[in-house]
C-alpha cells in the first residue's frame, strides 16, 4: 500500500514587497494510510503553508510531494485538480459553504466536478450527511444551522468523494467548546471506522490531543514529531509566514441543480 502523503525536502518562499520570505525551508515527512496526525504551532509558524502544500492547493518552490505514490511536480494544473478532487477532502475553519444552497447540494459539490449524475451525487450526499448526524437537515441552508452543524456539513462534503486523506485546517476555530468537541468526536469516529488518514492543523493542544501523532512547528523548525521522538530525524525545517485558506466554492449555485 502506498504512503498517503510523502513530502521530501519541501521548500516554499514568497516575494513580499520586494523581500523573499521563506515559509518552509526543507520539510520531510511521511503520513501513512489511516493515521491521525496533528500539525500544531503558533500563528506564523508555517503550519498552514505546509497544509496547503500537502493538499496540493499550492506548489512548492522546490522539493517533492507524493500523494498515494503519485509525484505531484509533473502534473498539469488540470491533472492536479483532478487528483486532488478524487484523493483529498478539505475542511476549513470558516466552513466555505454556499449560503443559498441546501446542505445536500453543498455536500454534493465535489461530485459535480467529477461529472457524477444528479441522482447518484444526491444519494451519496445524503449518506454522507447521515454519517455526520445531519440526515434530518438535508434541505436546510447554512443560515438555518448552528456553527457546529455547518462544520458537520463541511465534513460531509469533504468525505462524499471517499478520499484517502482528509485535511482539516483549524476545524474547531470558529466553534464553542461543545460544538468543537462534537466535531472532534466525529473526526475520531470517521478515522476509526473509515480508515481515512486525517491531518489536522491547530494551535490548540486539547484539539491536537485527539491525534495519535503530533508534529510541532515553531520558528521555522519542526521541533517534535512524536512518531520519531524528536525534531531531528526525518523532518527538516519548517516555518515562516502562513497562507490564508483557499476558497473552494467553485461553480455558481445554479450549476448544482
Automatic annotation (TrEMBL):
Keywords: ATP-binding, Nucleotide-binding, Transport. Residues 229-242 have a biased composition (Gly residues). It comes from the Bacteria. It comes from Nonomuraea africana. This is ABC transport system ATP-binding protein. Residues 226-257 are annotated as: Disordered. Gene3D superfamilies: P-loop containing nucleotide triphosphate hydrolases. InterPro entries: AAA+_ATPase, ABC_transporter-like_ATP-bd, ABC_transporter-like_CS, ABC_transpr_LolD-like, MacB-like_ATP-bd, P-loop_NTPase. One of its GO terms (molecular function) is ATP binding. Pfam families: ABC_tran (PF00005). Residues 5-244 form the ABC transporter domain.
Amino acid at each position: 500500500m502506498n504512503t498517503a502523503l510523502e513530502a521530501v525536502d519541501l521548500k516554499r518562499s514568497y516575494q513580499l514587497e520586494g523581500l523573499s520570505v521563506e515559509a518552509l525551508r526543507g520539510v520531510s515527512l511521511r503520513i501513512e494510510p489511516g493515521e491521525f496526525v496533528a500539525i500544531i504551532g503558533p500563528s506564523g509558524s508555517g503550519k498552514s503553508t505546509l497544509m496547503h502544500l500537502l493538499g496540493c492547493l499550492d506548489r512548492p518552490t522546490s522539493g517533492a510531494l507524493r500523494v498515494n505514490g503519485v509525484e505531484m511536480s509533473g502534473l498539469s494544473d488540470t491533472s492536479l485538480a483532478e487528483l486532488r478532487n478524487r484523493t483529498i477532502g478539505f475542511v476549513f475553519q470558516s466552513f466555505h459553504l454556499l449560503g443559498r444552497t441546501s446542505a445536500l447540494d453543498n455536500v454534493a459539490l465535489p461530485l459535480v466536478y467529477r461529472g457524477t449524475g444528479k441522482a447518484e451525487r444526491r444519494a451519496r450526499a445524503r449518506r454522507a450527511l447521515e454519517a455526520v448526524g445531519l440526515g434530518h437537515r438535508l434541505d436546510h441552508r447554512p443560515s438555518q444551522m448552528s456553527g457546529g452543524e455547518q462544520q458537520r456539513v463541511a465534513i460531509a462534503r469533504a468525505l462524499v468523494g471517499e478520499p484517502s486523506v482528509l485535511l482539516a485546517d483549524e476545524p474547531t476555530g470558529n466553534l464553542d467548546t461543545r460544538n468543537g468537541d462534537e466535531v472532534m468526536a466525529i473526526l475520531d469516529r470517521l478515522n476509526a471506522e473509515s480508515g481515512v488518514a486525517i491531518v489536522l492543523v491547530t494551535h490548540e493542544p486539547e484539539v491536537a490531543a485527539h491525534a495519535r501523532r503530533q508534529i510541532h512547528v515553531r520558528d521555522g523548525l519542526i521541533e517534535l514529531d512524536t512518531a520519531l521522538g524528536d525534531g531531528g530525524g526525518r523532518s527538516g525545517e519548517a516555518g515562516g509566514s502562513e497562507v490564508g485558506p483557499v476558497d473552494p466554492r467553485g461553480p455558481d449555485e445554479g450549476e448544482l441543480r
